[in-house]
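<tokenise_the_fold>
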Amino acid sequence: MIFKLYLLIALAYLLSILLSLSIGSVGIDWSNLSEMSKIILFDIRAPRILMAIFIGMLLASSGLVVQSVFVNPIADPYIIGIASSATLGAVLAYLLKMPDFYYGVFGFFCCAAFTLLIFYISKKQSIVTLLIIGIAVSSFLGAFTTFAIYLIGEDSFKIVAWLMGYLGNASWNQILILLIPLIGCMIYFYYKRFELNILLSGDDEAKSLGVNVSECKKNLLIVASLGVAFCVAFSGLIGFVGLIIPHMMRMFLKTNNHSILLPASCALGGVFLLICDTFGRTILAPIEIPIGVITAFFGAPFFLYLAFCQKLKQW
């Protein structure tokens, strides 16, 4: 079954990449590539494709880890406060009259600082207390930034558009930067795959097997949050990927073994976000639909399906 899954995913990657390279607001004549076509292919579409794949991989794998840490199928990296802190960063960049690019840069630094602050505050607290602190501070930041956006008025459109998710600014430099957290997160998550399996059995069982539960969970959440923060920096906020991809893998593979789930979720997350981005930029071309809208369009019905099928329950 696993071999068939990877074969299907590989085929989906091949077809999606070829389709994404070929279609868009400007057609490509493969039989006679002009200089303009080469620029479009190699400087615009190719880095955007890789950006979608890398961000999809990071979001899916981080979502799987966060769900396992909280032993909750509806947990998501954004509940730690990434969404609100990223919004705060974008608002600060605007208030400082920085170029659009710095919305993501400020969003990343706010995400990173906020994540480390939350874990420092809750250093001697339980993981449940950590979640409560994250939600409380996140709500406060959300209220502050929403009010700030309201005061900015019509000029806040750029911030709102960035928050909907956008991959059109992808570049080769960004791809190289994003490779660092992607490789680092995947190596760390896979190294901790056995601890992740044990955590699903409950804290008491994990402690009896020699796992430092509190330290292990906090380290995993820090790495997952910082990984998602890099995604926020380059693409804005893209929801549902970290929620639905792990569920799809569990339903298809019928296992909670992270040795299998991590690489499978990572692979599927990349191709899923690539398909969503291709759909969003071509369906109404030359108008682009924000990728966050597309993922919500597919993700919300899927989540409702899970709810009605009573699959959203504690493991």
About this structure: The chain has one domain: 48-308.
